[in-house]
Amino acid sequence: FSVCSVINQPPTISGVPNQQAAEDIDLALDVSPYINDPDDDNSTLAITEDSNYAAVNGQTMTFNYPEGILTEEVTITVSDGKAAASQKTTVNVTPVNDPPALSAITNLEVNYKQALDNVYDLYDYARDPDDNDNELTYEITVNTQAKCGAAIGNNRFVDVAPDSAFIGLSNLTIRATDPDGLWDEESFLIRVNPGA
């Protein structure tokens, strides 16, 4: 009699198109239409990848790219447990504008008739992953007591020069706006104390 041995035929993967992703947004890629195995049911094949920004669930890959990643070449591998095949594909990433963020600004106390320049440098409080500090626009959007004399100098500094007749408390809100109109706000208090 003769003994027949079954030779495993490896799976194949082909035709996976390049992908277009958007920054910080999930992109799902179903690999099942692009894989085949002459010996095994395609649903039993395992998928792996070498991306730093993807995860695999079954035969679906999900990509999510952070700020600063514009393109990635990814190797996708299909395996039947005995043999494997791979294909490279490229993921291009479209940047998405992120809003600026202002950190907390401490409350301020000044004395009656005391004028202070450059009390706060707003560059120290603003962060924007897409724009430089000097590309942001800074403004006061709320000032509950205009006589406290708060103003933005040189699109950067908070200056305070209280009216000579003002003693009391004002609530200020500072807004930082990026060139695309996205913004963030932070509020703090200015207290003008009576003179000694």
**Total strand count, please?**
18
Q: Helix share of residues?
A: under 10%
Find the structural class using helix and strand composition.
Answer: mainly beta
The average pLDDT value, as a whole number, equals 94
Order of neighbouring strands in the sheet with most strands? 2-9-8-5
- Poorly predicted residue ranges: none
Oligomer: single chain
Number of helices: 0
Distance from first to last alpha carbon = 115 Å
* CA gyration radius, whole angstroms: 30 Å
Largest sheet: 4 strands, mixed
Secondary-structure element series: EEEEEEEEEEEEEEEEEE
Beta fraction of the residues?
A: over 45%
Shape: rod-shaped
Descriptive account of the structure:
This protein is mainly beta. 0% of the residues lie in helices and 48% in strands. The protein has strands spanning 12-13, 19-22, 27-30, 35-36, 46-49, 54-57, 60-63, 71-79, 84-94, 101-102, 108-111, 116-121, 126-127, 137-143, 150-153, 157-160, 168-177, 183-193. It is rod-shaped, with a radius of gyration of 30 Å. The protein starts with 11 loop residues before the first strand and ends with a strand.
What distinguishing features does this structure have?
196 residues, 18 strands, 4-stranded mixed sheet, mainly beta, single chain
Layout of helices and strands, plus pairs?
Blueprint: E1 12-13, E2 19-22, E3 27-30, E4 35-36, E5 46-49, E6 54-57, E7 60-63, E8 71-79, E9 84-94, E10 101-102, E11 108-111, E12 116-121, E13 126-127, E14 137-143, E15 150-153, E16 157-160, E17 168-177, E18 183-193
Parallel strand pairs: 2-9, 11-18
Antiparallel strand pairs: 1-4, 3-7, 5-8, 6-7, 8-9, 10-13, 12-16, 14-17, 15-16, 17-18
